[in-house]
Amino acid sequence: MSMRKFQEKKLPSDWLETIEKFDIVSSSLSDNNKILVSRIIDSIIEEKENFSIDYFSEPVIKHIVFNHTLSIPYDNIPTNLFREAIEESKGEKGLDLVRKLHSIFIELMTYKELLKLGYQIDDYTRSEGSCDLIMSKDNQQFNFEIKFKESADISHGRYFDYINGMSYLKKNTFLRGKFFEIHCKEQAPNYTTQKAIFKEIDSFLENKEAVFNGEYIQIFDTSKRGKVIKSPSESSNYLNSFHISSELTKTGNLDILIQELFIDKNGHITKMIKKSKKFDNFKGCLVWSIPFHKEINVQKVEESFQKLELDFDLHVFLSGIGKDNYNFIVKSKHATRP
Q1: Residues 223 and 273 in one domain
Q2: Are strands 313-319 and 326-330 parallel, antiparallel or unpaired?
Q3: 95 inside domain
Q4: Which of 14, 77, 178, 336 has the most beta carbons within 10 angstroms of its beta carbon?
Q5: Contact indicator for 91, 105 with CB cutoff of 8 Å
Q6: Are residues 273 and 234 located together in one domain of the fold?
Q7: Centroid of chain to Cα 127
Q8: Each residue of 39-84: pLDDT tens digit?
Q9: Cβ–Cβ contacts within 10 Å for residue 100, how many?
């Protein structure tokens, strides 16, 4: 369950025309920002009125239409690397584009962390089936594969980002400046369910309902909560959605959770194991965004990961809203232990 107040601005009727006329080349944007803005504008022009204003497009639109400052924290990424990464998002649109761009920015964040560990980029180019980064250290070249595990909070945040972005349009004035709550009926919706949820959100926007109750999601004006939460069981489920989970605080639970999330059903670590057999000097990088509302003991998380018996080094980067990042390495079972 999440609650947020939507923004109060309205896009002018000619906003699409303004976007199309924007001169990226002569703008004062940094080189990397020009690459990102070009990708977003191409997507807007391709989809026109069907374009969905989302997490990545909203700041671009606000910069062009409202003259808001646009900055991304990756201006110190080599432009060649940034361009090659953004190129991978071509052909994607809607939710797929958002997910791909998010994944790309995770890769770039990981690149910056690897620089701190003494690695240097060797090859900026990408090819089908190659690893995400080719980097060197101590006169040795390594192939890094990066996997990102999203928490359910990220998908929940995307629902708000999407509705908030669409509130800029004239037809959605009923949203502006109001507090709405979103309750996802599945705790960790998979990709297929997320696509269905966005269709339900479109239905909510089309019908301009103060209270929407779909198969997968509830959306309602906070002032209408009494109409949604009626029975004691519904009230209990509502309150439980705010409770802090203990699954990331107990070592036994963590072992099971890591197995379920990253190994079972062709999970991220299993995919790395398969890919590691195709490349020399393979290293894995796992970025795990832990839900911000969960209490965690990062040392216990590391203890559980260190039990893995892998044929390659695995760099683990833990992150979360309101938390300090915590990074560690699970050394290959073949490495000499101190």
Answers
A1: no
A2: antiparallel
A3: no
A4: 77
A5: no
A6: no
A7: 23
A8: 999 999 998 877 889 889 999 999 999 999 987 778 889 999 999 9
A9: 19
